[in-house]
Amino acid sequence: MSRSKSSRQWLDRHFKDEFVKRAQREGYRSRAAYKLLEIQERDRILRPGQIVVDLGAAPGGWSQLARRTVGPKGKVVALDILPMEPLEGVDFIQGDFREDDPLQRLNGILAGRPADLVISDMAPNVSGMPAVDQPRAMYLCELALDFARQVLTPGGGLVVKVFQGEGFDAYVRDLRACFGKVVTRKPKASRPHSREVYLVAAGYNS
Fold first, then answer.
1. pTM above the 0.85 mark?
2. Along the 206 residues of the chain, how does pLDDT read in single tens digits?
3. Domain range spanning residue 120?
């Protein structure tokens, strides 16, 4: 199958997607907002006044929802290596959070305050080869956990996208060693054929 034919089929599915249409109607930047919204409805991870850090934030759908929920007394900081159009009330840092400069900028914004919640919808560029893609995906999950352990307040939470496959069970064990509660969610907005699930961890014990 040619790349152009595959691209046309993807675009056809994308623009027929009910969540894409809803995002356009309701003003969200991406259909991914509905994944976080469903998690929020079940687990109440976002609350007014929280400090939230959004990893891999572009184009900003999760940051939008977080901003609306934490309200004026809360703070949302979004990080991504890709550019992101400004969002009112969201501090955006473009850069790789593994590097010193973005971390220093984040620390400056937080002004010594720990985060209440880290959210990560990060995924690698897909090659189509599971033996390559799965380790890349799990590496991003591990980075998100390492980052959360640096910035979370005791009792804080983490929501992270994970692809089921090699390394998944070990990662869940790692989460359970750090958090009091870990549950797996498969939101309706997550395409049925996708191996992606979301791990929702609460009660961080530093």
1. yes
2. 445 554 454 344 544 577 677 767 776 878 889 999 999 999 999 999 999 999 999 999 999 999 999 999 999 999 999 999 999 999 999 999 889 999 999 999 999 899 999 999 998 877 778 888 899 999 999 999 999 999 999 999 999 999 999 999 999 999 999 999 999 999 998 877 788 999 999 999 97
3. 30-204
Residue 6 within a domain: no
CATH number at residue 70: 3.40.50.150
Residue 88 lies in a domain: yes
Task: Say if 23 falls within a structural domain.
Answer: no
80 belongs to a structural domain: yes
Q: Taking Cα atoms as reference points, which of 130, 163, 123, 161 lies closest to residue 145?
A: 161
**Number of structural domains, the chain?**
1
Instruction: Considering the candidates 16, 73, 75, 161, report the single residue annotated as catalytic.
Output: 161
Cα 164 to Cα 14: distance, rounded to the nearest angstrom = 23
Active site residue 181: no
Please count the CA atoms within 13 angstroms of the CA of 189 that sit on its side-chain side. Answer: 18
Query: Within the chain, how many helices (H) and strands (E) appear?
Result: 7, 7
